[in-house]
Specification:
By secondary structure, the protein is α+β, with helices and mostly antiparallel strands. 18% of the residues lie in helices and 56% in strands. The protein has one domain (6-66): 2-Layer Sandwich (Dodecin subunit-like).
Length: 68
C-alpha cells in the first residue's frame, strides 16, 4: 500500500436555503483551489438569526486532501 500524507483545513459555508446547500457552497469553493479532496467532516452547524427569524444556515467543515 502506498504511503501518503493528508492536510486538513477548516472552512465555513453559508446559505439562505439549508445546511446541505451551505456544505455544497463550501466544497464547491474549496474545489477551485484544492485538488484531490478526500473527506469532509461536519464540525458544527448553526443559523444566523435576525429579528428572531432564521436568515441563513452556516456549516463548518474539516476538509482533508492528499499532499503531493
Amino acid at each position: 500500500m502506498e504511503k501518503s500524507v493528508y492536510k486538513i483545513i477548516e472552512v465555513v459555508g453559508f446559505s439562505e436555503k439549508s445546511w446541505e446547500d451551505a456544505a455544497k457552497v463550501a466544497i464547491k469553493t474549496v474545489d477551485k483551489s484544492i485538488r484531490d479532496m478526500r473527506v469532509a467532516e461536519v464540525v458544527m452547524m448553526d443559523m444566523r438569526l435576525e429579528d428572531n427569524r432564521i436568515i441563513g444556515y452556516r456549516i463548518k467543515l474539516k476538509v482533508s486532501f492528499k499532499l503531493e
